[in-house]
């Protein structure tokens, strides 16, 4: 009698494809004659460009225009006797950033991974070698140490108090109010006029406040454009299309020049406040369209399921539709925030001396009357660092929320 084996034979796993660097280069860079020619041309162009840049940076560039005006780039004409205020604000920001980092990474086994350690070492080395006075180098190095210490401490505390992260938004909001008090003075501190606020400080402040205000305003406009109420829908469409049809510089000029003409005599809003209002109104219109795209991507079955569970319209939108819509358009929203930060350079046109405007102030000095490329390169590096940090935070948030899945 023949015995039949009912179990299928075990299948061997597929062979693993091992691609070494030489194979990858041949396949992707030198697969055909025109790919080889294009690769060689690009490499030659990069070599010549990088070589020329290195020679200029190390031998020809005059970096004294940066070192002599280091304070101007960051705080503008803020009184030198009150410089402790921006330093204190920077310390509070780093402290809260470290705490936030540690709390959000409370479940991570290795807080300081290899890449994080590499970034910290590079940052510390740059700060130590930065051509500024020794006390400033020590302060900047201490900022890095504070970030590391608070991140580790935040993670340890969050392991025993996991609900501590619920208080982070409130802590940051209170910190923002403290920052405004420290910068402007009052309540026991010497008052500093906003006309003396400038440099990178003004760019960051205008961008942060505008982002905090334009985000809820943009969400409301997006919901209003989707509303079934004719008045709400019509107003939202009118606002969005009107603002999107105007350039930002026109809105800033309207806020700085035209609006005060219609106000009573003696009533003149602060120039920085008017600029922030202009940036907020402009960005809210574009943000509303980004959010509306996310709202339209949500299937109607989600709303019907929410109604079947007994949720009314506000709860359906707030708990079901809006979280999914915002999650889907995180890249577009962060892109709008980055654009808003870059748009703060237009404040110089309306008389506010922000980071790029500091260049003209420097070129007015007798020692640096000729325009220096080093100034614009330094400005570009600072803007890139902030924009890259925002982009990196966006990618980490998308990964945490599993946006691609």
What's the gist of this structure?
70% of the residues lie in helices and 0% in strands. The chain is built from 17 helices and no strands. Helix 12 (271-296) packs across helix 14 (313-328).
Structure description:
The chain is mainly alpha-helical and about 400 residues long. The longest helix has 29 residues, at about 375-400. Helix content is about 70%, strand content about 0%. The protein is globular and about 70 Å long. The model has no long low-confidence stretch (mean pLDDT about 85). Helix 9 packs across helix 12 and helix 12 (about 270-295) runs antiparallel to helix 15 (about 330-345).
Secondary structure elements and their pairing?
Elements: H1 21-28, H2 33-60, H3 64-67, H4 70-75, H5 84-104, H6 114-129, H7 134-160, H8 168-184, H9 199-225, H10 230-244, H11 248-258, H12 271-296, H13 300-308, H14 313-328, H15 330-343, H16 355-363, H17 373-401
Helix-residue proportion: 55-70%
Tally of separate helices: 17
Shape: globular
Beta-strand portion reads: under 5%
Oligomeric form: single chain
Q: What is the string of helix and strand elements?
A: HHHHHHHHHHHHHHHHH
**Measured distance between first and last alpha carbons:** 54 Å
Low-confidence stretches: none
Could you give the count of β-strands?
A: 0
Q: Biggest sheet, open or closed, and with what strands and sense?
A: none
Mean pLDDT: 85
Q: Based on helices, strands and strand pairing, what is the structural class? A: mainly alpha
Rg for CA atoms: 27 Å
